[in-house]
Specification:
Layout (H helix, E strand, L loop, with lengths): L2 H20 L15 H6 L2 E6 L3 H18 L2 E6 L3 H11 L5 E4 L2 H9 L8 H10 L2 H6 L1 E2 L2 E2 L2 E7 L2 E5 H7 L7 H13 L3 E3 L11 H14 L2 H8 L8 H14 L8 H7 L16 E6 L9 H4 L2 H4 E5 L11 E10 L6 H8 L6 H6 L17 H12 L3 E3 L1 H4 L2 H17 L4 H11 L3
Parallel strand pairs: 1-2, 1-3, 8-9, 11-12
Antiparallel strand pairs: 3-11, 4-5, 6-11, 7-9, 7-10
Length: about 450
Amino acid sequence: MKKSMFTKAVLVLSASALVMMVTGCGGKGGESSSGSSGKAKAEDKTIRIEGAFRGEEEARFQEIVKIFNEKSGYNVVYTGSPDFEVQIQVETQAGTPPDIAALPQPGTMKRFADAGYLKPLPSDVVSAIDANYAPVWKDLGSHKGQVYGIFHRVNAKSFVWYNKKEWAKRGYTIPKTWDELKKLEDKMVSDGIAPWSIGFESAAATGWVGTDWMEDMMLRTAGPDVYDKWVNHEIAFNDPAVLKALNYCGEVFLNKKYVLGGPNNIIAQNYGDSVKPLFTNPPTAMMNRQGNFITGFMQDEIQANLEENVGVFALPSVDAKWGTPVLGGGDQFVAFTDKAGVKEFLTFLTTWEACAPWARIGGALFPHKTQNFDDYGNSLEREIAKILVNATVFRFDASDLMPTEVGSGSFWTGMVNYVSGAENAEQCLKTIEETWPR
């Protein structure tokens, strides 16, 4: 989505929000401006949650909500929206946020915390985080000495998916290094098949798939320390290290022989649909780089037997000294109110009971160190979960950690402009650098 379109959407929605504010819809943190309804609110057991996940993901989360409601007596109601990231901005400014929100970008959490919209998590919830998560997840949910967020469903993103039967038939083997991957790509081209199927399209979030590729390449070409500097803008977005990573992406994106349908199809193809060409009869592409959740978008007959049909490997390393890092992401649940039931639901999310049903269905991973790996429905996801939980080199999605203007703005559009040919690598990175808040 172009920035001008984003601005127009915010302006239109903000106008509606202002009307709500004038009629007395509340203040910061969801606090009511009217004291007359205090008794009614005290008896209100409805907890409103908003987030971006819909469709199958929403259905699976609703099962988790149902378990909590039945055991607690509260009435948690989740609403997913394709425009969530605009909606939550307007609601917070209008003083009408939900009780809890699942934020995809930690950068948004920090901005909301600085504005006073969020409630720091109480000590017993923080203790539950300490008991059930590795320290990195608490750090990612913290800001200026306060813990605000809890991670539930997460994605490990550094994976390449393939058609196990087709690879066996063609005699392809899993590459361990970038040089081996390039040789395999060229072999696939000589065999008359596109190595990659890639899709950037994601409605208002189009381009995020490109940022994931870029982040994986930053970790593999520059290493975790430079990656952290990039995230925190301690190096410019158009630093030579960043340009090097983008050029590695370009070796794939801009090569018409390497990508099904070429660069134009990358932009037009939906990210969820991009895995399907691997499993058509016959397949039209051989690989799809995506997070673990992509299994939920595969054809039904493929999902029916993932272990037999689907293979997966980590995106190969470029520089051996950086190893094969794991890139991840996920939704962070934060509280805008401290009404009864909010703390209880957030504590519930830290337990494996709130994860196991989704793990059994598939399409999601969880960072809980107390989890039972046998609850995953197949060995494919079981092994990926172990990689995530046991990873010694792990970094969160960079765009989720960057300021919102960049992470879910100019970085997304920049990757689209680069692939479309509207900007070359240098222009793309320069444009993004200029949008970084000063």
